[in-house]
Every structure is written in C-alpha cells, then in structure tokens.
Write a structure and sequence with these properties.
Blueprint (H helix, E strand, L loop, with lengths): L6 H6 L9 H10 L6 H12 L9 E2 L2 E2 L1 H7 L3 H86 L3 H7 L8 H20 L6 H30 L10 H10 L3 H28 L17 H25 L6 H8 L1 H16 L4 H21 L8 H32 L10 H26 L9 H17 L21 H18 L11 H26 L12 H13 L5 H4 L6 H29 L4 H6 L3 H7 L1
Antiparallel strand pairs: 1-2
Helix pairs in contact: 6-7, 7-8, 8-9, 8-10, 10-11, 10-12, 10-13, 11-12, 11-13, 11-14, 13-15, 14-15, 14-16, 15-16, 15-17, 16-17, 18-19, 19-22, 22-24
C-alpha cells in the first residue's frame, strides 16, 4: 500500500532530529515517549492509514476525515474522560433510582421477615405443645405397661418366694418330727432366701429385702428348732451302745454349714460320750462284762503287766468303737478332736491305778514291761486322738504315765548299780565278780531282749513299739556307771605288796585283772544278737583294750622288779644279781606270768596277756643283755652266768 506523504509523515521521515513541536509535546504528554522513538513512529504510521484514502479532505460525505479527524481526536483522552464523567452522572442518577427501589424492597422484606418470625414462633409453640402431649402420652403408656409387668412379677414373686402357712408350720412344729418332708421344707426356705439374696443386687428392691429378712428369720428359727432336736437325740447317746439314726446324720450334715450350731452339737456329742465312757470304764474295772465273762479288770491287779495291759487294751478298744461311731455320724474329720474330749473321763481313773501299780513294783524288768506297754499304747493313741489346746488331758495323762514309769525304771536300775559299786569296795584277792553285778546284768539283758522284741514288732508290721533310744540310753548309762566304778583307786600303802582284805589292799595288776573280769562278765551278759547296743559295744571294746594294756604294763613292771636286774640303767649289773635272776627264773614262782594272770575269767584273754607280757619283758631283757655284753665284754664271770634272751623266753 502506498502511503501518501503527509506533513506529519514528512516530519517524522525527516532524517535530522527536530525540536519537538506542539504535536511532539502532545504525543509525549500522552505516551510519555519521545516522538522520534520507533514505536511512536510506527503508531503514527498506523494512524495515517486511516486517512490515506481521503487525502487532505477534511469532510467527506458528512464525516470528518483525514487530518481534521486526527485533530479532532487528538484530545481523545479528554473526550473519554468527559464521556466517562457523563456516564458516571447518568449511572449515579440511575443508581439513585435503583437505590430508592431497593430501599422500598428492603422495607417490604423487613415487613415480610417480621411476619415470618411471628409465624415461626407460633409454629414452634404449636410444635412444642404437640411434642409435650405426645411425650406425656408415651410416658403414660410406658408406665401403664410397667405397672402391669410389675403386677404380674409381684404375683409370681409372692407365689414363688413367700412361704405358705403349711411350710412354716412344718418347720416350727412342736414336737419336731424330722423326716424327708421336714428337710425338703428346710431346703425350700434356704433356696428362697438365696434367690432373694441374689435379687438384692438391684437397687430399690425394698420388698425383696423385707422378704429376704423374713426368710432368714424363718430359716434361723428352723435351725434353732433342729438344734434342740439334735441335742435331745445326743443326750440319748449317753448309753453304752448308742444307735445311729439316719435322720440324725442328715441333720448333722445339714447343720454343718452353720459353724456355731455345728460346734455346739459336736461339743454336746463329745460331752455325752465322755460321760458314757467314764461309766463304762469304771464298770469294766469293777464289774466286768455281762454274765461271767469277761471278768473285772481289777481281778488281775496282782499281775501288774496284765492289769495295766487290760486297762490300756480296754481304752484302745473304746477308742476304736468311738471312732466308728463318730464316722457313722459323718463326723470323720472331727473324730480325733471329739475322741480326745470323750476320753477325758477315763484319764483320772487310769492314772490312779497305773501310778499305784508301778509304785509298788521293784523289779526293773517288770517296770520295763509296763513302760513298754505304755509307750506302745501312747503311739496308738497319738494316731487316734488330736492333742489340741483345751482337750489334751487324756494324752497328757498317758504321756505322764509313760515318763513316770521310765523314771521308776531308771531309779530301780540306779539302786541296783549302787549295790554293785558298794560290793566293788569289798572285793577280795580272788577277784570274783560280785553277785549283785550278775543280778544287775540279768535285769539289763532281759530289758535289752524285750526291747529288741518290741523293735521287731515294728519291722514285721504286727504293731508299733517304742522304737526310740530312751531305754538304750538308760541301759548304757547304768553300764557306764558300773564300769567306771570298776576302776577302783589303788591303795598308796601297798603298790605291789600286801594281800587278803578288802578292795583297798589289792595290787595294781589285781585291780586291772578285776576290771577285765568285770568287762568280760558285762560282754558275756550283754550279748546282743539284735544289735540294740551296737553303738555302745565299741566303747566296751575300747575299755577292754585300755585295761589289757594297763595290765600288761603292770605285769612287766612286776617281772622287772622281781628279776633283781637293773633295767632302768642307773646301776651296773652284778654277778650276784644275775645269779639271783637265774634262780628265780628256774624256780618258776615269782616270775611265772601264767600264774599272775590265772585269775582272769577270760582264758583266751589271759593267754594273750601272758604272751604280750613275756614278749615285752624279753625285749627289755634283750636290750639289757646287749648292753652288758658291750660294757662287760672282758668280765667272763658275768658273761658266763648271763642267760641269752632266747633261754629267758623259753623259761618264762
């Protein structure tokens, strides 16, 4: 397109910069860009296109064109502002009208809103009234149904848990008749009470609580009535052979759940049986059984062992019968305690008779027999009776009798031991064992034999014997005392001489011989096939060894003293001493060892002692012989009479 050269374009197309004119200032005011900027020039070229077809014609066909139009639109911004202002004025005028319309509309809406709020209040009030009425109607309906349900429950509760007059009369009747119907009624009341107790967990059940209290009172009255019936029946148990009623056992089982009532019944039964056993025991002692047999127990009072044994056997049989009776009543767990109480009446009569019998006994064997019986039955009674606080009288009595009899046994043995030690002081040179020692050993041996038999009972299962070591300790204590007294002190006035007379004139070796005789007698008498004294026998062997060694030392000393030889080495050996020794040796009197030990009752021990003494003496002589031969080798006279050790051993 060909652009017509216009003054503006010619101005713009000028190569030389020109000072901005009025157009340039206007363009710069509007665009804030200099006129000679390429962008401005491009814009002005675009504007000139709008007027290229009209050349310089200002008005064509009634329209302003060309530069005239450009001039007209130079102030477009101002025109636009004017137009905008005009539009704003028109808009403000129109907006005022609209605002007036909206104010009227808002007033109308406020009136409508007020009316709506009034209607809403009315509707809410109506709804609340309707809901309250509906709720009240629902509550009334629920209460009506609940009342109907409670009425039915109350009728059923009364029918189920309220005892009728027939049931109450059956439980509280006088006199009471105990049978199946009675226990059924008692069970029914207990069941009602327990179910009422379960229902008490619901709050507000006052009627249930009152009914539970009434049932509890009725049940308590029923058990009190049953307790009186039981006590009446228990009083009938005072007979010698009471009958066990089935209803009585059922009643005891029923009342077991009430501790206080059950303890009262148990105590009453124990008391009744105590009285019955006391009467029966006195009757057995004085009257015996029905007819002519068995005879009264006191008819055998002359035989202490049988007398005490019969009394204890009767008590044991009574214990077995009472235990069976208590078991038949269903009181197996309480029978030991009840039996201990029931035997209380037997304790005192038994104690009086046993103490009187044992105090009159003097023989240790007889006392041991009674002691063994008491110890045997004490073990049996311990298994049958419960030794509890408040009811140990019978067991304490048996224990006291056992200890007392053992004390009497020990006293009797001690008296016999004192007699033996008294006889030891008057022993003669014969060195015979006193008769009192043999008597004591016979008693002790019999006691040991009986004790071994009682221990054998335990191993065979025929019964239970006194298997403790009390009796063994007593026997060994007496033996040790006797053996200690057998070691009598030596009279200082006659260490190796003297003779005859009492025990004070015995020589040292004779004392040792006597002690060995006593030890041998004790060993022979206390032969113990059952090994009851197994722990004491080594002590006896040790005593024998010590006494044998002491005897050997004494005899060797006597041989050295009678040989006239200086075995001590302080003096020299003389020919006369050797000749005197040879003469005594050949005469076989003073140096005869066999004669010195001839008073030993144990011949085997005598031979052993003699051999030991000879060996010891010959050994000492051999040392002396060696010393003489060494020191007096040039003394032919002395050496010619000095016998060799072998010859001395042969002659001894």
């Amino acid at each position: 397109m060909h652009l017509q050269q216009t003054p503006a374009l010619s101005l713009l197309s000028s190569e030389e910069p020109r000072a901005p004119g009025s157009l340039g200032r206007r363009v710069m005011q509007i665009t804030q860009v200099p006129l000679d900027e390429p962008s401005v020039r491009h814009t002005l070229e675009a504007l000139s296109l709008c007027y290229d077809q009209y050349d310089d014609v200002a008005v064509k066909d009634g329209e302003v064109r060309g530069l005239a139009a450009l001039a007209k639109h130079r102030d477009v911004r101002g025109d636009m502002q004017d137009c905008t202002m005009q539009l704003d004025v028109e808009f403000a005028r129109s907006l005022g009208m609209v605002d007036h319309v909206f104010e009227q509309l808002e007033q109308s809406l406020d009136k409508v809103d007020q009316q709506c709020r009034g209607l809403r209040l009315l509707v809410d009030r109506a709804l609340r009234s309707t809901a309250s009425v509906a709720e009240m109607a629902s509550v009334v309906d629920d209460e009506r149904r609940e009342l109907a349900l409670r009425e039915r429950l109350a009728e059923q509760f009364v029918q189920r848990f309220s005892p009728d007059h027939q049931l109450v009369d059956r439980l509280l009747q006088t006199p009471l008749i105990v049978d199946d119907s009675y226990f059924s009624a008692l069970d029914a009341v207990e069941t009602m009470r327990l179910e009422c107790v379960k229902m008490l967990g619901v709050d507000g059940q006052m009627a249930v609580r009152e009914l539970a209290d009434e049932l509890q009172q009725l049940e308590a009255s029923s058990y009190d009535n049953l307790l009186r019936w039981l006590i009446d029946r228990v009083r009938e148990l005072g007979r010698s052979s009471p009958d066990v009623d089935r209803w009585m056992r059922v009643a005891l089982d029923k009342i077991r759940g009430h501790a206080a009532l059950f303890d009262a019944v148990v105590a009453e039964i124990s008391r009744a049986r105590c009285e019955a056993l006391g009467r029966d025991f006195i009757g057995a002692l004085t009257k015996g059984g029905p007819g002519v047999a068995p005879r009264p127990i006191e008819a055998h009072a002359g035989d202490p062992q049988r007398y005490v044994g019969d009394m204890l056997a009767w008590v044991h049989q009574a214990c077995a019968s009472e235990k069976e009776f208590f078991d038949a009543l269903g009181l197996r767990a309480e029978s030991p305690r009840m039996l201990a109480v029931a035997l209380t009446s037997v304790a005192r009569p038994l104690e009086i008779r046993v103490v009187q019998t044992t105090n009159e006994m003097r023989t240790p064997v007889a006392l041991y027999r009674v002691y063994s019986l008491l110890a045997f039955y004490r073990a049996l009674f311990d298994m049958l009776c419960a030794k509890e606080a408040g009811s140990p009288e019978f067991m304490d009595t048996v224990e006291s009798l056992t200890r007392g009899t053992r004390a009497l046994l020990v006293d009797a043995l001690e008296r016999m031991a004192d007699l033996v030690t008294g006889d030891f002081e008057s022993v003669t040179t014969v060195l015979e064992v006193p008769v009192s020692l043999n008597s004591l050993l016979l008693e002790l041996a019999e006691i040991v034999r009986l004790h071994a038999d009682s221990l054998a009972l335990t191993t065979t299962g025929d019964g239970q014997a006194d298997d403790d070591s009390d009796v063994v300790d007593d026997v060994t204590s007496v033996l040790n005392k006797v053996l200690d007294e057998a070691q009598l002190p030596v009279d200082a006035a006659s260490p190796s001489g003297g003779g005859g007379g009492g025990g004070g004139q015995l020589r040292e070796y004779e004392r040792a011989l006597f002690e060995l005789n006593v030890l041998a007698t004790v060993r022979d008498a206390m032969a113990d096939p059952a090994n009851v004294l197994a722990s004491w026998m080594p002590l006896l062997a040790e005593r024998e060894t010590t006494a044998s060694n002491a005897l050997c030392d004494h005899l060797v000393g006597i041989l050295k003293e009678r040989s006239y030889l200086p075995f001590d080495g302080d003096s020299d050996v003389q020919v006369a001493d050797v000749q005197a020794f040879n003469g005594a040796l050949k005469m076989a009197t003073d140096l005869d060892v066999t004669r010195l030990v001839s008073r030993l009752e144990n011949h085997l021990l005598a031979r052993n002692v003699a051999q030991t003494v000879v060996q010891s003496f010959v050994g000492a002589y051999a040392k002396l012989h060696e010393k003489v031969c060494r020191d007096h080798s040039d003394d032919q006279a002395l050496l010619s009479v000095l016998l060799p050790p072998e010859t001395v051993s042969t002659l001894l």
